[in-house]
Amino acid sequence: MNGQPYQAGYHAATLRRTLWREHLGLLPPQEPDASDDPNAQPPGVCGNDARDGEESEFVADPLGEEVWDMWCSRATTNTEVFRELFRADPDDNSKCMRASQQAMRVL
Q1: Nearest in space to 66 (alpha carbons), one of 76, 57, 53, 78
Q2: Is residue 68, in this structure, part of any structural domain at all?
Q3: How far, in Å, are 32, 48, 61 from residue 57 at the CA level?
Q4: Is residue 61 part of a domain?
Q5: 55 is a domain residue
Q6: Tens-place pLDDT, residues 9-53
Q7: Rounded Cα–Cα distance for residues 59 and 20 (Å)
Q8: Number of neighbouring beta carbons within 10 Å of residue 62
Q9: CA distance 10 to 33
Q10: Cβ-proximal residues to 3 (8 Å cutoff; 6+ apart), any chain
Q11: What is the DSSP letter of 94?
Q12: Can you list the alpha helix ranges (DSSP code H) found in 1-107?
């Protein structure tokens, strides 16, 4: 981790890599009918390898600089979109009660 060699259990590492690729939007989109999706096949027929591809290698080091930059940029974008769409209150951007009340009036 963080550029240094490390050991990780197979199941824990593949679960983390799959979840991180899913959350970062690095997995390919699924077909609506799921007929060719390896995850929709009966047990024992799955042709899915969670450690294949350059996306899996990208998230292999959870403390890597590139992964952290992507994680933070996606989180920032998601937070901005959420604030714009839902106008959550209270919000860290409201520094006083008056600002919070004015934001609620805009709705």
Answers
A1: 57
A2: yes
A3: 27, 16, 8
A4: yes
A5: yes
A6: 888 888 888 888 888 988 777 777 877 777 677 766 655 555 567
A7: 7
A8: 16
A9: 30
A10: 61, 63, 64
A11: -
A12: 10-23, 54-58, 65-86, 97-106
Tell me the pTM: 0.65
38 located within any domain: yes
SS3 91: coil
Residue in the structure block whose two tokens are 């096949």: 41
3 DSSP 8-state letter: T
pLDDT at 106: 62
CB 51 within 8 A of CB 17: yes
Q: Are 56 and 16 in contact (CB under 8 A)?
A: no
Sorted by sequence, the CB contacts under 8 Å of residue 106 that are 6+ apart come out as: 87
Domain of 59 in residue numbering reads as 10-106
Q: How many domains does the chain have?
A: 1
Cis omega (within 30 of 0) for bond into 32 = no
Distance CA(89)–CA(84), nearest Å, equals: 12
Amino acid (1-letter code) at residue 13: A
